[in-house]
Amino acid sequence: MIKITIYQNVKKEYVGFQTEGHAGYAESGEDIVCASVSVLVINTINSIERLTEDSASVQSEEDSGMIKYRFEKTPSREATLLFSAMVLGLKDMAEDEEYSKYIDLRFREV
User: Fold this and answer.
1) What is the pLDDT of residues 51-95, one digit of tens each?
2) What confidence score (pLDDT) does residue 106 get?
3) Residue 76: helix, strand or coil by DSSP?
4) How many domains does the chain have?
5) Which range is the signal sequence, renumbered to this chain (predicted)?
6) DSSP E strands, the chain
7) Measured between alpha carbons, how far is 8 from 96 in angstroms, rounded to an integer?
8) What average pLDDT does this structure show over 7-11?
9) Domain CATH for 84
10) Do 48 and 82 meet the contact criterion of CB atoms below 8 Å apart?
């Protein structure tokens, strides 16, 4: 199961996330759930880096599927929009009847 924690501040603004684990939907290389989550997450990180002035810290560990991402300060409107699009995609997957048992999506105030 992929565990995803979305971090929000007291104002409910997104400030980062952490992913960990592998879906286990199918064999490695055939797992569409892992691939979909990876595309959403990595595209969001790359988009924020290339299309905004926001800075963030990123840590990853391929074997465990861990990615930690934290904005260094309050994200811009553009970064928030990109981040919100990622959350929308992850929510849709986590609520889908076929995929919900492979994704644990949580929100945590930090």
Assistant:
1) 999 999 999 998 888 999 999 999 999 999 999 999 999 999 999
2) 98
3) coil
4) 1
5) none
6) 2-8, 14-20, 56-61, 66-71, 103-109
7) 23
8) 96
9) 3.30.70.1490
10) yes
